[in-house]
Amino acid sequence: MVVRIIWTSTAVNQRRKILNYWNKRNKSKTYSRKLVSEITQRIKFLINNPEVYVKTSFQDIRTTTLGHYNIFYKITAKELIVVAFWDNR
């Protein structure tokens, strides 16, 4: 069972850049807060259902789509590791 969530520095930087983009574009943090909430909900779902989404061609990496974004993650016995947060546009 997953008991710990780890975001790699790559994933954190990608998420930060996306949120900063929306803050500047919309001149508001409203959309960014909504996106963070959706990310949090998906991560909580992954904690209980880590193998529900498809494997990628990269070893042990799975992905889930969240609107225009993909969360790439790896699961171990006790960790869910978010390796990338990708904007698909």
TrEMBL record:
Keywords: Toxin-antitoxin system. It comes from the Bacteria. InterPro entries: RelE/ParE_toxin (IPR007712), RelE/ParE_toxin_dom_sf (IPR035093). This is Type II toxin-antitoxin system RelE/ParE family toxin.
